[in-house]
Amino acid sequence: MVNTLSKIPVQDAFAQTADLSFTATADENGLISFRNLSDTVTKLFISCIGFEPKLINVTSLSFSNHLPVIDLVPKVSSLEEVKVRATASNGVFKTISDLDIHLRPINNSQEVLRMVPGLFIGQHAGGGKAEQIFLRGFDVDHGTDINLTVDGMPVNMVSHAHGQGYADLHFVIPELIDKVNFNKGPYFADKGNFTTAGFVEFKTKDYLENNFIKVEGGSSVHSGALQVLI
């Protein structure tokens, strides 16, 4: 079972016959065993949450590396209203979405940090190094007291001329950021070093749906261009 857009295996896809004589679920690699499928079966119904259901002819399956490949088309799933009430103790994880990021003009990924409530940044070297960060009363310097990661990779440098924890995010292309998780306070030992004032986790996109080109210019001899291809 494969996502027709990303070509990533689809886990937990469900296959069954009309009379339920055969049922099977895809594993983490998107594989389903047809070992117990009767030779008389001609049609299978495939379904998975987040994908369009599909009725296929068993004899018309395409083959790749000698394995039948079934393409599933992603779709938006509409669920009934669900009310969730969280207490102050478990409502501690906060997220900045892709929509939040791209509704605001952003020159670099460091500026995404401004969206974290209570976080301020300042640049006193013309953009040549990591910004100075202040978070909720903490002078974070250039990252000494805040844990920054990109796709799970630590950004903070253990040792640097500007002090330990120096974190320069300019290598991240802001248009490729999918979401940002964050929280404040020295309560997250599982996040590792430099989490005195809080942490910020950048998550980039898994794949692009379309190619895109971005061109911008300004009155102060400012110009920029970006081209991203799938």
From TrEMBL:
Domain of life: Bacteria
Subcellular location: Cell outer membrane
Domain TonB-dependent receptor plug: 94-198
GO CC term, one of those recorded: cell outer membrane
Example of a GO MF term: siderophore uptake transmembrane transporter activity
InterPro entries, sorted: CarboxyPept-like_regulatory (IPR008969), Plug_dom (IPR012910), Plug_dom_sf (IPR037066), TonB-dep_rcpt-like (IPR039426)
PROSITE patterns the UniProt entry points to: TONB_DEPENDENT_REC_3
Topology versus the membrane: Multi-pass membrane protein
Alphabetic keyword roster: Cell outer membrane, Membrane, Transmembrane, Transmembrane beta strand, Transport
Keyword Membrane in record: yes
GO biological process, one term: siderophore transmembrane transport
Entry annotated with the keyword Transmembrane: yes
Family recorded in the similarity comment: Belongs to the TonB-dependent receptor family.
Official protein name in the record: Plug domain-containing protein
Organism expressing this protein natively: Paraflavisolibacter caeni
Lineage, opening ranks: Bacteria, Pseudomonadati, Bacteroidota, Chitinophagia, Chitinophagales
